[in-house]
Amino acid sequence: MIDLSIILPTCNRAGLLSRCIETIASTVKCNWELIVVDGASKDDTWDRLLRHQRELGDRMKVIRETERRGFVKAMNQGFLHARGRNMMWINDDARPLPGALDEAVRQIDRVPADVGFLAIFHRWHSPRNVAYQTTVDDQLYSLCHIRGTLYANFPIGRRELFDRLGYFDPRYAFCAADPDLSLKAWFNGYRVEPAWGVCLDHDEHQDDRRVEDLPRMTADNERLFAKWNLPQRNPLKNDFDPSFPCTLRGMNEAAKEAA
Question: 150 pairs with which residues across the strands?
């Protein structure tokens, strides 16, 4: 049985993608599979993917879109093709620290049934919205919260929960998809907890697509806060409380009617 399915969306970042794939292949020891969804890249991504696929064989599946459809649609394709009993995703400029994903599998296999996702620590570019932090080799890694509720930028969870929650809400393009998935878990009675000792390096590589995608990012955030009944943002302080990691008060009435 496959212990972990890793979904990896990518578009036009061949060098970063290869580095990510090579890191996974050289550091993950459990029975894993990698599903790469290529958003119609125009650089040499496809050639590199074919080479990596020859090297990795059945461990790697490649899905090539005919046009770039965005993070959410790419991810949902990957989830549907996954075969592992646990699932997660990783960005094409991220690299797990040695042993990190094996430890993530060990932890998710031990947690109580009401823990839906474990949140993987990652390199975060801002002091805002930080819930927890840890240091490895003098590098700082963080987990984030949204209005006081812990969520997972990079969650690992059991396959059956991903299936039950319906993966990513297709009304998002990408920006609010990961907090929304965690909020769906909290809303359905599951907890999100830190995956202590599990970290991803993240290049935060300058991505020109962010300029092009800014209107969709703004719309995603508006949909997120229209959907969920969360407190207003506190402009004066970081108000995450580890003893009360969920401030979600349910789904807004308009969202319930549309669901």
Answer: 145
Per-residue pLDDT of the chain (259 residues; tens, 9 = 90+): 999 999 999 999 999 999 999 999 999 999 999 999 998 899 999 999 999 999 999 999 999 988 788 889 999 999 999 999 999 999 999 999 999 999 999 999 999 999 999 999 999 888 889 999 999 999 999 999 999 999 999 999 999 999 999 999 998 887 899 999 999 999 999 999 999 999 999 876 556 656 566 677 788 889 999 999 999 988 888 889 999 999 999 999 666 656 5
Domains and CATH numbers, the chain: 4-258 (3.90.550.10)
Alpha-carbon dihedral of residues 145, 147, 149, 154, nearest 10 degrees? -30
How many Å apart are CA 177 and CA 109, to the nearest integer? 25
Q: Note the pTM of the prediction, 2 decimals.
A: 0.93
Residues 6+ apart with CB under 8 A from 143: 119, 121, 122, 130, 131, 132, 133, 150, 152, 153, 194
Alpha carbon distance 215, 220 (integer Å)? 9
Helix (H) or strand (E) holding 33: strand 32-38
